[in-house]
Amino acid sequence: MCRQKVKMGLFGSSLSSSLIAVILVLSLAVVCHGGKTSTFVRKVEKTIDMPLNSDVFKVPPGYNAPQQVHITQGDHVGEAMIISWVTVDEPGSSKVVFWSENSKEKRHAKGKVSTYKYYNYKSGFIHHTTIRNLKFNTKYYYVVGIGHTTRQFWFVTPPEVGPDVPYTFGLIGDLGQSYDSNRTLTHYELNPQKGKTVLFVGDLSYADNYPNHDNNRWDSWGRFAERSVAYQPWIWTAGNHEIDYEPSIGETKPFKPYSHRYHVPFKASNSTEPFWYSIKRASAYIIVLSSYSAYGKYTPQYKWLEEELPKVNRTETPWLIVLMHSPWYNSYNYHFLEGETMRVMYEAWFVKYKVDVVFAGHVHAYERSERVSNIAYNVVNGICTPIKDQSAPVYITIGDGGNLEGLATNMTEPQPPYSAYREASFGHAIFDIKNRTHAYYSWHRNQDGYAVEADTMWFFNRYNHPVDDSTSTQS
Ligand SMILES: [Fe+2]
User: Fold this and answer.
1) C-beta atoms surrounding 13 within 10 Å
2) Is the pTM of this model over 0.85?
């Protein structure tokens, strides 16, 4: 927009119109920073957790009934699913019975059960069972709780991996279990664009905000999220609220509750830890990174990512998406520079391998960047300003799920040129891949109707269609 107005000024014919144009340009230079800070004013009310007796936390009836049922992709390409649940009365069976919509043949798979202790809390019996050899693009029913109280759910497998396969991802981060969290989840469920898989960018239950990290809040979160995650996979990223490191009560093993409860298919991508891994799904290649595991040179995560990025075949999966928790580009006055050290380590790779988009959370608000990079700095040259870069990803902060810590409302001013849109509201987003060149992205705030799009962008694929897709130059 700014550039177009500048051109109009320069082509003015008379002296007076040129003078007006110069004044116009000068005034625009003061107010135009390339991006937009939304003027939407959210109704301010305190963000509080729903009480444990809320209906969304209800324990399913029946002896040893499975609860907190959740699924995630179980292999690298989408032909397997990890089914997880908790039983509380006794271990019961880790068997899953499953069948496809068009088949009467019932198959079964067996998994494993485990428990953990955290300070004075003892977990229920946590089951994880991987079901394999699923057909693509097929609806499956599955039953858990064999032996006592059974519960039945369903999911749809993704289409076979390929470059023009449309697929719709939802984006949720920093969800928690407040009344606002419930609104976010409802808005996602009722969004007419119908997300098929959630890319979750970390910070699930916020149990660690309770005295002694009351792990009952991990259980209530599991029951709350079940209504979505039992029916479609959520792809997990570890956030800082998953660390649960608390030496004052003797809890010194990071990620203990999270890694017992949420399994991911990390071995399928040759990762050695569940905190960084990759999957393919339809036309997308999704890389999950851990902001809270070592990522410096020589570390396992660094070596894995160094080997992983060249493996991505963009003729097969054109859309390269990275998930992490702590954002690299963030113009809010919260968590300032927390993502900076990882950016220094990996940003040049993201530019080299033309990552399409990076989704992060952590900051409890919404922000979308221009395509920028900041990789020229070498300590002595002083070149340390982000510049527009068509090989760089768009960075989206979507930590606006609605947890009890409330909104991040304080922004740095003026809005930096790399920031395309920012708004302090709770919500979720949809990344809707159309084909190998185009994806439609929309962000939805909780205060609006389910179909309303508060921020949108057509993504042009960086490998197949690397044309400038900035919303500020298109308008
Ligand atoms: Fe966080």
Assistant:
1) 7
2) yes
